[in-house]
């Protein structure tokens, strides 16, 4: 996700970053490779570190290793990539371009684009990759400001960008890895935490979520790509309770909130001051929940049997 990623990159230049490059376990000798692609959620971003080993992809790999004997994990995900940047490395909705690929890259690994890197890996390791996951589209939508009077036009434009570009990504991967299962996900809505400030802000956030996840599900469905239902796993539309269930869930599964006594409060983001910070990315519990959602879908569909 792109929000606050520019600050994150600046911080990454002056702090020690956990897992400071996309993960790759070399020495494949049979057993299966898992290739992870996507944005900061796939990269394991937790402020201020752009890459961590806490990602759902890292956790899912452990499941794949234990259950199916996978012995190799390659994560090419790049924080802040939108669909256009994933294809070309050049800015789509954002003028900055990809942080990891293309002419404006400031984070490793470099190269033309994330999609090109994936295709190159598949070409150089024929028959080794047995599963691909993708988490993509949030940064297309984060280009829209919910407070902008013309937000509906922006949202329509960005959904159109996803609808046009995501099939290019999936089609390219399917051509490069025929028969290899590709599994995607829909998204949670971190800004539900704004209910703690003003419930109307949470309602506005949900107004983004419905068409966004609906577009992702429609595109993936048309291309035969199963979708891990993270939206439901994070209780996104459950508004029961004095503090709504979806708000409590997003406070648990992201770092948007912190507890003061028995109550949740909205965290303040400051890249310099230590302590709890507002972070749209998953907490460790959130990454675990996403990994479990992927694993249950993969197992339930028998994709690797």
In sequence order, what are the helices and strands, one letter per element? Answer: HEHHEHHEHHEHEHHEEEEH
Specify the biggest β-sheet.
5 strands, parallel
CATH superfamily: SGNH hydrolase
CATH-scheme architecture: 3-Layer(aba) Sandwich
DSSP helix fraction? 40-55%
- The count of domains is 1
The oligomeric state is: single chain
Q: What are the segments in which pLDDT stays under 50 over at least 5 consecutive residues?
A: 1-22, 24-29
Q: Class, according to the CATH hierarchy?
A: Alpha Beta
Q: What is the number of helices?
A: 11
In short:
With 305 residues, the chain is an alpha/beta fold. It has eleven helices and nine strands.
How is the secondary structure organized here?
Blueprint: H1 5-12, E1 33-38, H2 40-43, H3 56-68, E2 72-75, H4 83-88, H5 114-124, E3 129-135, H6 138-141, H7 151-176, E4 182-185, H8 199-222, E5 227-228, H9 230-233, H10 245-253, E6 254-255, E7 257-260, E8 263-266, E9 279-282, H11 284-301
Helix pairs in contact: 3-11, 5-7, 7-8
Describe this structure in words.
The protein is an alpha/beta fold and 305 residues long. It has one domain (5-300): SGNH hydrolase (Rossmann fold, 3-Layer(aba) Sandwich), CATH 3.40.50.1110. Helices cover 42% and strands 12% of the residues. It is built from 11 helices and 9 strands. The protein has helices spanning 5-12, 40-43, 56-68, 83-88, 114-124, 138-141, 151-176, 199-222, 230-233, 245-253, 284-301, and strands spanning 33-38, 72-75, 129-135, 182-185, 227-228, 254-255, 257-260, 263-266, 279-282. Strands 2-1-3-4-5 form a 5-stranded parallel β-sheet, sandwiched between helices. The protein has a two-stranded antiparallel sheet with strand order 6-9. A two-stranded antiparallel sheet has the order 7-8. The radius of gyration is 18 Å and the shape is globular. The two termini are 33 Å apart.
């Amino acid at each position: 996700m792109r929000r606050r990623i520019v600050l994150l990159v600046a911080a990454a230049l002056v702090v020690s970053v956990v897992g400071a490059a996309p993960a790759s376990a070399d020495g494949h000798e049979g057993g299966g490779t898992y290739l992870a692609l996507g944005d900061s959620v796939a990269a394991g971003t937790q402020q201020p570190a752009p890459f961590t080993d806490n990602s759902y992809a890292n956790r899912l790999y452990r499941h794949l290793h234990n259950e199916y004997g996978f012995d190799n994990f390659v994560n090419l995900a790049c924080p802040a990539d939108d669909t256009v940047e994933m294809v070309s490395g050049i800015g789509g909705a954002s003028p900055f371009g990809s942080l990891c690929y293309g002419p404006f890259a400031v984070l490793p690994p470099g190269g033309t684009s994330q999609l090109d890197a994936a295709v190159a890996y598949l070409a150089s390791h024929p028959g080794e990759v047995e599963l691909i996951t993708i988490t993509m589209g949030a940064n297309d939508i984060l280009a829209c400001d919910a407070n902008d009077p013309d937000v509906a036009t922006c949202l329509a434009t960005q959904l159109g960008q996803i609808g046009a570009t995501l099939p290019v990504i999936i089609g390219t991967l399917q051509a490069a890895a025929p028969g290899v299962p590709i599994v995607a996900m829909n998204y949670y809505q971190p800004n539900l935490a704004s209910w703690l400030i003003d419930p109307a802000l949470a309602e506005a956030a949900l107004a983004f979520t419905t068409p966004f996840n609906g577009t992702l599900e429609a595109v993936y469905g048309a291309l035969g790509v199963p979708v891990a239902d993270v939206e439901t796993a994070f209780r996104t539309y459950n508004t029961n309770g004095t503090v709504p269930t979806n708000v409590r869930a997003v406070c648990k599964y992201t770092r948007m909130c912190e507890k003061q006594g028995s109550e949740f409060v909205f965290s303040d983001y400051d890249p310099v001051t230590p302590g709890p910070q507002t972070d749209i990315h998953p907490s460790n519990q959130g990454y675990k929940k996403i990994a479990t959602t992927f694993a249950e879908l993969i197992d339930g569909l028998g994709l690797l049997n």
